[in-house]
Write a structure and sequence with these properties.
There is one protein chain. Helices cover about 40% and strands about 20% of the residues. The longest helix has about 45 residues. It is an alpha+beta fold.
Length: about 725
């Protein structure tokens, strides 16, 4: 038996060895086959393949993506796409030796019709023949002098920079006149900044007229490399309606490009990108994905084949919570009341320095922004076209570009008192039956005396809020303490970001954010002074939190996101289950005492808002505020309505407004519009306004909708 087993094992080993040998032979044959093929490719046919490689070069060119649009809550276009024409220089087709002549020919054609070509060189030629740096282009001048370009010191003048640029682009010894040289340098500089290459054509001019289109087509048809392309350009049908919120597009810079590349996002060197506002915040949603086409050239430089390898995908469409009609009302009311406050101040009186303000209106149901206006405003369509208008905006002392509604922080004055009252009631520092004596001056801390607007005598919470007694709240604040005070303020959303999708400020909360705090500062903080400074959107959020019973929701601007065709929903805000940020920590009963007192501010003949809202047909709860500062006092007003079933909350700030009637006037105009109290007045409005009230999703806007009105605007003076 043992002999048989050994024979079987030996037989199995021989069989296995045969299989191994066969596998080795097969493997060697395969490798020999590959080696032979490589020998043929590299040695026998190597010269042929080398010639083929030399005579055919492929380039991948990125094509534009269609940017998503931005609409209001009813589907009205706010930032939309329009077809435009642009002149493009394509290096794949252009004759390099004729490039300068081609550029000069294009410039002459453009100048003959007084049309603009892209000219971002921060150097101009003065009438006296001197080169000077342009105003308002500090950042561009800094880039020009940097080590990435001319590598010169900060003190280098424009003349030196021009000489270095002419040398850089080999234009210095060609006998060009100064103006011609300057224009050629500008185009070459722009080309370098925009990474002009075989895979990245250069946009010489965009937004050209149909007349210019015909002229260029006729005169440049025999010039290779000059193309007229259609493209989609951003347009804001109502340029002044909400520029701070919508934001603008601009050419992508190197830092932005590198960042997007690191994120794995496809961008071309000629792409535009959101610079601020929603255009920036929702860049990834709006941008879409660019396509790709492969261009093949032979050794003679001729294009032999063009293949579309990847199709472009459009971006998504944003629906905002903002209602265009309410936004228009907010803009008009702000402008009117700011001007009225200034006119009332006369020559140097209180309010004569009132030039700016802001208002925010929220839906109490879900804290969606119904309107948010900052004054003065600007025309987004003109802003996007760099020129004198943009320079004036940047240099204007009233900062029209500054978004006061979301970023501006202002002392709240007495509108802070409802927060102090709610906190003091909850902490049992005061009660319904608590009375303090007001003798006009509160001097518990002699170094921090507080003056009241009146002498109220013995006064309780309800009357103190109604008449805005500083003495009552100074004593209440002292007993409450600054630490407890700011903890409740945080819960109400003061000194906290509201959750907006665009840039907003934190604000400043006295005590928490203060340095060198002294005990006596607490009484100033309790009446809305000291270091307290909040944004109008925070004040509106705070007001809405009081109105809805103490739950602070996330304030937001986006209602819905759909695909470009507006048929598929990508995201929709759930108004039935809104996002909760915090609760104020005040019982329903204690908060009802504050709400009742705020109603009394309007309903009681002694209330500080009675003059404007005493006979208003909608029951309103409110609080007025006056904040001391350099110049005339700021006026602040918060309110919600209807009192018994709140729907909207409003916060208004007029810088140096001096008198509260003007800030109240802004809020009243918004409520008139929201509750339809001005329908009779609307019947007499022009047909343009009637069309504007149509909420059709496919509404068209003409250029006249904004240009005639806005042409003679803020900068006339």
């Amino acid at each position: 038996m043992q002999v048989d087993d050994k024979e079987k094992q030996a037989e199995e080993r021989r069989f296995i060895n045969k299989r191994v040998i066969i596998c080795i032979i097969i493997t060697l044959v395969i490798f020999c086959g590959f080696a032979c093929k490589l020998f043929v490719w590299q040695i026998v046919e190597g010269e042929e393949y080398s010639k083929l490689a030399d005579t055919s070069t492929a380039y991948t060119v990125t094509t534009d993506a269609t940017r998503g649009e931005i609409l209001d809550c009813n589907g009205k276009g706010l930032a939309v796409n329009r077809t435009g024409y642009r002149i493009v220089l394509d290096k794949l087709y252009i004759d390099a030796e004729k490039l300068d002549n081609t550029i000069l020919s294009l410039i002459r054609l453009m100048d003959s019709r007084d049309e603009k070509w892209i000219d971002n060189l921060p150097i101009k030629l003065e009438d006296k023949g001197e080169f000077k740096f342009k105003n308002g282009m500090k950042d561009e001048i800094k880039i020009l002098k940097s080590k990435d370009y001319l590598n010169v010191g900060a003190s280098a003048d424009a003349d030196k920079c021009m000489k270095l640029l002419a040398e850089r682009y080999e234009l210095e010894d060609k006998g060009y006149a100064d103006k011609t040289l300057r224009n050629l340098v500008s185009v070459h500089y722009n080309m370098e900044r925009m990474w002009y290459s075989n895979t990245n054509p250069y946009i010489f001019a965009k937004g050209i007229s149909s007349d210019m289109l015909a002229i260029v087509s006729e005169n440049m048809q025999s010039v290779s490399g000059v193309e007229i392309q259609t493209y989609l350009t951003r347009h804001n049908p109502k340029g002044k309606l909400m520029p701070h919120i919508l934001g603008a597009l601009g050419s992508i810079n190197k830092e932005e490009y590198d960042k997007k590349q690191a994120e794995g996002k496809k961008y071309g060197y000629n792409d535009s990108i959101g610079k601020f506002g929603l255009e920036l915040a929702y860049e990834d949603e709006l941008k879409g994905t660019g396509g790709e086409r492969i261009v093949q050239k032979n050794s003679d430089g001729n294009v032999t084949k063009v293949v579309e390898s990847v199709n472009a995908k459009p971006g998504h469409t944003l629906y905002l919570t903002i209602d265009s009609k309410l936004q228009k009302t907010a803009n008009e009311a702000l402008e009117r009341e700011v001007n009225a406050a200034r006119a009332a101040g006369g020559n140097g009186g209180e309010g004569s320095d009132c030039y700016t303000g802001a208002v925010v209106m929220l839906d109490v149901k879900d804290f969606s922004v119904l309107a948010a206006s900052s004054y003065p405003t600007f025309n987004l369509n003109k802003y996007s076209k760099y020129g004198e208008y943009y320079v004036n905006l940047v240099e204007d002392k009233h900062s029209p570009i500054y978004n006061r509604a979301f970023i501006g922080s202002f002392a709240p004055g007495s509108v802070f008192k409802p927060c102090v009252a709610a906190a003091a009631l909850q902490e049992n520092v005061i009660g319904e039956g608590t009375f303090f004596t007001c003798n006009h001056i509160y001097d518990y801390y002699p170094s921090n005396p507080v003056a009241c607007m009146g002498t109220h005598g013995s006064i309780g919470l309800r009357t103190a809020l109604t008449k805005s007694c500083n003495v009552f709240f100074a004593e209440t604040g002292r007993r409450l303490g600054i630490d407890t005070m700011y903890l409740y303020a945080e819960k109400f959303g003061l000194g906290e970001k509201t959750g907006l999708e665009v840039e907003e400020s934190n604000g400043i909360l006295a005590g928490r954010d203060s340095k060198n705090w002294q005990e006596g500062n607490t009484v100033q903080a309790a009446i809305g002074q000291s270091d307290n400074a909040f944004t109008p959107v925070q004040l509106a959020t705070y007001t809405a939190t009081i109105a809805n019973g103490g739950t602070r929701l996330r304030t937001h601007l986006i209602k819905e996101i759909k695909n470009y065709e507006r048929k598929k929903t990508i995201f929709k805000y759930n108004t039935k289950k809104p996002e909760v940020e915090d609760t104020c920590g005040v019982s329903s009963y204690n908060l009802s005492l504050v709400q009742s007192a705020m109603r009394n501010v309007v309903a009681d003949p002694g209330g500080t808002a009675y003059s404007v809202f005493g006979n208003y047909s909608i029951p309103v709860a409110a609080k007025t505020g006056t904040a001391e500062n350099a110049g005339s006092d700021h006026t602040v007003f918060i309110c919600y309505a209807p009192y018994d079933k709140p729907k909207v909350a409003i916060a208004v700030v007029l810088e140096h407004g001096a008198h509260g009637q003007y800030s109240m006037g802004v809020a009243k105009s918004l409520m008139d519009e929201y509750f339809g109290l001005n329908k009779t007045e609307k019947k007499t409005e022009s047909s343009d306004d009637t069309e504007e009230s149509d909420n059709s999703e496919n509404e068209d806007y003409s250029e006249d909708d904004y240009s005639d009105e806005e042409e003679n605007e803020y900068y006339e003076e």
